Amino acid sequence: MKNIQLLNKIAKCGTDIFDKDIYNVADTVENPDAIMVRSAVMHDMEFGDNLKAIARAGAGVNNIPLDKCAEQGIVVFNTPGANANGVKELVVCGMLLACRDVVGGINWVKSVKDDAGVAKLVEKEKSKFAGTEVAGKTLGIIGLGAIGGPLANVAVSMGMNVIGCDPYMSVDAAWKISRSVKKVDTREDIFAQADFISIHTPLIDNADPKVNTKFMINKDTIAMMKDGVIILNFARDALVNDDDIEEALKSGKVRRYVTDFPNARTAGMDGVIAIPHLGASTEESEDNCAVMAAEELVNYLETGNIKNSVNYPSVEMPHHDGIRLVILHRNIPNMISHISSTLAAQNINIENLMNRSKGDYAVTLVDTIAEITADMIDTIQSMDGIIRVIKIG
What we know:
With 393 residues, this protein is α/β, with parallel strands linked by helices. It is elongated and about 90 Å long. It starts with a strand and ends with a strand. 31% of the residues lie in helices and 20% in strands. The strands form 3 sheets. Strands 8-7-6-9-10-11-12 form a 7-stranded parallel beta sheet, sandwiched between helices. It has helices spanning 12-15, 66-71, 84-99, 102-111, 118-125, 148-157, 171-175, 187-193, 219-223, 242-251, 283-303, 335-345, 374-381, and strands spanning 2-6, 23-26, 34-37, 53-56, 75-77, 138-142, 161-165, 182-183, 196-199, 229-233, 254-259, 272-274, 323-330, 352-358, 361-368, 386-392. Helix 3 crosses helix 6.
């Protein structure tokens, strides 16, 4: 029986994925084989020797100590794209709220709700909340992935001119984007041309300005933008410099800043529409994330195949009826030959082998019909560079 620990409430459609004859799924279990998590912070947690995987039912993994997990041979999964539609729809909502003063108008109506002549008052004062339409305006999207790509298509259908920038866009993502979307080469092209800017990139703190995304919206990049630009941030809080956005809002350079990540600075900042991280807060998104996370864990625990890991490479090899060794190791030269020779020295014939690497880490899957003893696994585990060996079958 494998134990799956839930650190947060996970939708039942996800936990139902686990076969009750094989898995024990509960909030509190001893020495879990895997953990499912949403928002619980795990940085101070100590992990048992049996923990093999963590699945985050969502895209962001800032609450999980990725390096620590990699060093302990714990594969961390996320669920990219599972909540994309929910986020995309809220970005469209944010765009409309920013160009039409809907929030201000609603709040004003509440303030005069007890006035007997409220209907006439509304007709008299509604011009104070007049706005602009999005049709004919230019939307610039930085990051054309699971959210940015579909957002581009919706914006085109709304009559907007759409430009996008994504140096890492996959071929599959490109096929799904409308031909009406104009691809530009750099963020600077977006900054210079767009009436609305929506950012959909990971948070990367890197010395290389072409790679770095931390505080990509700052006083220097804001200076490149059109007067009255609207900025939408439904990706990560630290993509935008709070001090610089406040100054730009005060001067009128930025008309509105819409963020799904309010903090102590932006929550009460004039000109900010702060949404309480509702991007993925739909029943459908939570269900999709739960199902994907559970399927990732089942796939890994039962076959050793890895899909959507954030700290180890993806690797998938067809199911094998014999024994499969999942070998997590450092990405250093000659590891495959060392693994093969060590197995050969123990009279183990390799039926199939696959190796994949990602940064400092790699995974090798080995299939065999030979008997694999605990001593054999210990021998492989003792090799330099080996982090963990898991036997399946």
